[in-house]
Amino acid sequence: MIEAAGSVPSAAQAALAADGSPMGEAARWAVNLLTAPDIASDEEMAARFMPTFGAGVAGKFSPTLREWRAQGPYTVEDYQAVAHKSWVTLTGPAGERHTLSLTLDSNGVIRILTLRPEMAIPQTRTWDELEEALRIPGIEHSVLAARLTPSGPVVLHETDADRPMATGSANKLYVMRALIEALESGKISWDDEVTVTPELRSLPTGDMQDLPDGTRVSVRETAHKMIVLSDNTAADIFVDRLGRDAVERAVAASGHHDPALMRPFLSSQEFFELGWGARERRAEWTRRDEAGRREMLRGITGPMTVRGSDLGETVHQLGIDWMMNAYDVLHVLAGLMEDSERDTTGAVERILTAYPGIVADPAIWGRVYFKAGSSPGVMMFCWLLQNRAGETYVLVLRQMADEQKPIGDGLYLRGVGARVIESGLLESGAAVGARARQADGVSTP
């Protein structure tokens, strides 16, 4: 694929070559884009990418691809794949390192493909090193690391953990809890179907917005897309099917510190229309109370008028987002774990563990839940991890800025989270905390 004739493939090259999954096959094709003797045709690229990419867009991508190829030849240094995402680390002729990132849709075609200089992620073996890594000019951050115990969470480290901040798609955790309540009460079943309509079609992330009008999808598959792909259309379909009030009850039942901050609970379509639709809505939203805001939402009906290209300016300062503190995130994750343990079908656990967000060592972590959340100026990653000894930890990392550029695409914050988890800091921090409590004469939970 890249190595010279007769050479021995590196471990990374061998891992990439051996991955027989749709992700592995797509990653090999993407690497080949950069290394094959001839540039791929527009038709070949259009066939590989999501349908909305199209041959016309492929033609516009060709100059970018030529720029990427000119930085080679490349050598594969590392390959990591997690569910529908993968990252290939490539080195150029002078040793410069690049990250080729891929995201697939649920049909196995490429939704996102980027090549960027590799981002340096500092080591985070102590909480001080974590704080140093997150201390970035122009960005506010919040951290919560805790161990869950029968007596309640034991905090290992926190920074502004009780501060309400915008969290983007973390709101889908509450939608999932509302769905589980409806499943348990018999109001809906996994095999029921929901319908994609123009009125419920939102913007990405996800891929349900690309389905034809009238497409019917099972509740099981829709829930999987909502959590694993963070599918906005899937979440909006559930908010419509279950009712806004059901999700608001789930917010309160999950222990949100101030449920009024999440009322009225926005669909993603309403969020986009409020934030980047008619500008007068922003000021009106800030002036109105809860009843007035509900009245406003009754006037926002699909199909959407906002397009992805309209997003850019930050609006979280106006309260247009889903506001949670880090403890709220912890409590809803813990609630989902309890939901999973009641679920005799195993469907909840399969959905929640399908995408761990990072390459987590299965020899250490037997259970990993993950959710990301983002909007302009907002980035949030959270994990619930249970080790083979049955100890459960939660890690919540949040960033917020007045513009998106300092935060970027989230690769840095995700990488910092991976460093914390890989370093063993959660478990070693818990052990240090236990020794400190024992020394103080306090019983260990």
TrEMBL record:
<dbReference type="Pfam" id="PF13354">
    <property type="entry name" value="Beta-lactamase2"/>
</dbReference>
<dbReference type="InterPro" id="IPR040846">
    <property type="entry name" value="ORF_12_N"/>
</dbReference>
<feature type="domain" description="Beta-lactamase class A catalytic">
    <location>
        <begin position="160"/>
        <end position="267"/>
    </location>
</feature>
<dbReference type="Pfam" id="PF18042">
    <property type="entry name" value="ORF_12_N"/>
</dbReference>
<dbReference type="GO" id="GO:0046677">
    <property type="term" value="P:response to antibiotic"/>
</dbReference>
<dbReference type="InterPro" id="IPR012338">
    <property type="entry name" value="Beta-lactam/transpept-like"/>
</dbReference>
<dbReference type="InterPro" id="IPR000871">
    <property type="entry name" value="Beta-lactam_class-A"/>
</dbReference>
<dbReference type="InterPro" id="IPR045155">
    <property type="entry name" value="Beta-lactam_cat"/>
</dbReference>
<protein>
    <submittedName>
        <fullName>Serine hydrolase</fullName>
    </submittedName>
</protein>
<dbReference type="GO" id="GO:0030655">
    <property type="term" value="P:beta-lactam antibiotic catabolic process"/>
</dbReference>
<dbReference type="GO" id="GO:0008800">
    <property type="term" value="F:beta-lactamase activity"/>
</dbReference>
<keyword id="KW-0378">Hydrolase</keyword>
<feature type="domain" description="ORF 12 gene product N-terminal">
    <location>
        <begin position="21"/>
        <end position="110"/>
    </location>
</feature>
